[in-house]
Amino acid sequence: MSSLAGKSVIVTGSSSGIGEATAILFARKGCNVTLCGRDVGRLEEAAEKCREAGSSGGHSNRFITVAGDMTHCEVRRKVLEDTQKAFGGLDVLVVNHGVMQGGAFDQLSETEFDSTIDINLKSYVFLIKDAVPYLEKTKGAIVCVSSILSTLSGQNFLPYVLSKAATDHLVRCLALELGPKGIRINAVNPTVVKTRIVRHLRLKPEDPDVVDAWVGPNTPLGGQASGTEEQADAIAFLASEEARYITGQCLAVDGGMTCKGNPFNWFPKPASS
């Protein structure tokens, strides 16, 4: 039996991509899951997938959804309060929501910059802050979703890159403060993953093979791009009892890509969609 069985988990940004795959994996492992996202339709679809994945547990009420924008404090608090009410506590917080926007530095707007930092960093900080009293009671774990771009210099998407570099350092700093409370905090740093976010890279989202074709030949391990499942597995590991002595770490789940440097420096330019 998984060490996560029976745990209560929040996964933000779980209406698609890595978040959805992570919520489904926790459901399969017998967890209670709160799914969060802005798109109500996709969020309900993800919750239904969780119900199917967790059907062996026999508890269809183990999954709830909270729709809303995580930059709003009332939404963040509702996520925590609804989880406490539904499941009686919180064991794992997966902070996964985010946005990639922007382009060349000379085209960067203050609005775009502020929006990215608000979503990818500020909301992380204050969601974690509000979650600490819940997690202290259970000696719980936090996993933030960062990016391999947090440590690689390159061109374009500056606000995104800055927000992910800050996320890594947030994890290291909070490990010092939260460790004495019995709370662990780590990050996964994904490579380019086959999710909706690649539309910002001007890849054709209607072509399921385009990311493999672009990333695969340049990935040392396996010669293919990461799917969401590889990232979900790493998140679940860091949240589990098997990682009980790991905190303040940022784990690159990238098939060895960072050994080659920043993919935006050595990949061919993607074709416009």
Annotated CATH architecture: 3-Layer(aba) Sandwich
Low-confidence stretches: none
Overall structural class, as computed from helix and strand content, comes to: alpha/beta
Structural domain tally: 1
- Number of continuous helical runs: 8
Radius of gyration: 18 Å
Distance between the first and last residues' Cα: 45 Å
What percentage of the residues does DSSP assign to strands (E)? 5-15%
**Sequence of strands across the biggest β-sheet:** 3-2-1-4-5-6-7
Biggest beta sheet summary: 7 strands, parallel
Order of helices and strands: EHEHEHEHEHEHHEH
How many extended strands? 7
CATH fold call: Rossmann fold
Describe the protein's architecture and organization.
The protein has 8 helices and 7 strands. Strands 3-2-1-4-5-6-7 form a 7-stranded parallel sheet, sandwiched between helices. The protein has a single domain (8-258), classed as NAD(P)-binding Rossmann-like Domain (Rossmann fold). Strand 1, helix 1 (17-28) and strand 2 form a beta-alpha-beta unit. Helix content is 41%, strand content 13%. It is α/β, with parallel strands linked by helices. The termini are far apart.
Topology summary:
Blueprint: E1 8-11, H1 17-28, E2 32-37, H2 40-53, E3 63-67, H3 73-87, E4 92-95, H4 110-138, E5 141-145, H5 158-178, E6 184-190, H6 210-215, H7 228-239, E7 250-253, H8 263-266
Parallel strand pairs: 1-2, 1-4, 2-3, 4-5, 5-6, 6-7
Question: In a nutshell, what does this entry contain?
Answer:
The chain is α/β, with parallel strands linked by helices and 273 residues long.
